[in-house]
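Query form — protein Glycoprotein

QUESTION: What is the three-dimensional structure of this chain?
INPUT:
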Amino acid sequence: MRLVATLVAIAVLLLSGPLAGSALAAPPAAAPAPAASPVVTPEVGGPLLLALGQADPRMVTADGPETITVEGTLTNTSDTVVEDLAIRLQRGEALSTEGEVRTALDGRAPSDAVTPQFLDLPGELAPGGSMPVRITVPLRGEPTTSLALSRPGVYELLVNVNGAPREGARARLAAVRMLLPVHSLPADPAAGPPIESPAPVASPFTLLYPIVDAPRRLPTVPGETTTLTDDDLADLFAPTGRLGGLVGALAQQAPAGSGLREATCVAVDPDLLQTASAMREGYQVRAPDGTVTPGRGAEVAGQWLDALAAATRGGCLLALPFADADLVALTRGGLAPLATRAVTDGRSITESILGTPVLDEVLWPADGLLDEPTLGAVGAGTAAGAGTVILSAEGIDQGRVTRTTGVLPIAGGPAGQGGVLTDPLLTVAAAGRTGATESTRTGPSSAVPVTSAPAGTSTPLSTQDLIGALVYRTAAGPAASSTGPLVLAPPHQWAVDGTGAGALLTTAARLLADGRLQPRALGTTATAGPPPGADAQRLSYPLRAGAREIPPAVVDAMRVTGDDVERLRASADNELGVGATPAAVFDPLLRDTLRPTSSAWRGRPELAERSGDATTDRVTELRSSVRVLEPPGPYSLGTADAPLLLTVANGLPVAMKVRVEIASTAGLRVAPIPEQRIPPLGRIQVRVSAEVTRSGQFIVDAAVRTLDGGPLGPPSRLQVRSTAYGTITVWLTATAGVLLVVLAARRILRRTRGEPGRHAVPGGPVGPPDQVGPTTRAHPADRANPPARSA
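ANSWER: The structure tokens for Glycoprotein are given below.
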């Protein structure tokens, strides 16, 4: 029986092996049949990684190429040789609803409506090896040799790589998905003449163009060298870097006076501008271990700042809150005044550095989301409180009507508060899927993971999904209930480089030229405000947004650090022409506490905590620079009332009024010390009246405090050595001397009066004093027979 069972098992394995392999692999010359039902693949990465660097065209048009070409690099990330490599482009059906577009953006849309033949790739791929890949496919034609496009629309496109690990079955080992927008189709000798899309009603269009990066600057005071946590900005500011590419694409694709520039409003982080301005004067980098090295990006930072100033001149400019602070987290933590200051200071800093006026009554919070307490406390950051807030359509209570655009009055804020809605679909497309370059999600028509995706990463194709979503929106035209422009608002921390931004701007310019879009300046929309009679809408703050806020512990730590800064400010002394002003020293320090609350750290609490620790440590270091210097040796006091001479140093560039305290201890009493003024970056000697009550050596603590009692530098331990007699010792000595004199006088007086001393011999001779000489002694017989006592 065991032999029979073994033979049956072997037969089952032999039969099931080929069937399983054919289910996963696609033969090079035939298209696989569509899957009967969605297949969920375990969340594991494939052995190959496909990184795409180019796709042409980004949007199919009638006057464009008749083929689509995709180029990239294929890398073997496994420890096994991969053979029998082949690649193909395949697509799904045209996406007809917003839900289908969102499904495609999430990587779950079918992509097997048209599956041309695979094209073999030469050779094999060893572990760790890479090879360039390039595939060109006709846009129109037969399904076995082309994408077989027959009408405009937006399609899910998949770049599919098959292969066989050595001694394994052939299967899909890497794939990249993206949206392919088809604006119109070029002519094809076999398929026919060009196909144009119907001309829709033009949609008013506004593009927000964020230029933001994570905070990297450490707190400093005037006179100190600018210090950064790393030197990444030296690369990012370069023309080939992300920030340099964003500015270059804006200047080239949206020049002043163009319709696209009219529709575009550049949103900048004032902290990034201030950092670049400081870098051009020279800076240093402090590593986590405390090592300090000179920065290498001073020149490129200045060039980037000049290019940005030129590109924004004469156009719409929007200042984000300083350091792109999380206004909701600050308000929840009781720091609403600091949140308001982030908005107002950010506007003044942006104007002063770039020299271009900003929209001073428009606020764009992180993710386009606010809660009602924050709106009530901060408003739009204006003196009157009212203004315009740019909000995601997901950030308002939709009610019965689902809105993706509009200008509406907002309830719960200052009177006259208005909101401009941004399209959530476009924001999702710009952000990409969570997980960056390597995704483990799969589509229902595939049985292997999509190992890389361009959306959401700083790659040349990072805006491809956004281009597809924008074309989808413009094809439908404006909604009947729309009361405002179609607003494209990428995330503040937009992971896109110059190539990706240039492709988006080129597409938007083409849609404007074709009449699908109509430029609408953000300032014009904000000035016009909501239409008369529009119902006010309440804010809706999603739970997912609250879960990503800056942790309360970080906000609490910044409150304590900010209180320390304000105590220093209260003790500062402003003297005209001497040192820096208190505002020049402490206003920047207070803004420095905003960096740990930057929206760059939303969803990344460990980075927020690290930034908070760095800020707190640096402010503590500056506060500790006002202190009592410890002498090289102990103080020696030769008299009971000898004064103590203390040296108090001030490491801040502003004069400080402080209180010096010495704790009294056994053996030393200290008189109250008057308020002291220490010059900027200077030191003074303080004469302290002290009284020694005993001799010897003892230790006392000396500390410097602000005028309201807050601690400054750490207490200094002073060793005091006294060789003088204290008051008690003097009194004891004097008392002993007096007693000695009194006793001596008493003895002399008694002798003078003839009184016997305490040592007189009982029964001795009695007579006049002159008859009792020093030689008079008792006879031995007398000592042996003393006289009898009288009764």
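ADDITIONAL NOTE: The chain has 20 helices and 30 strands.
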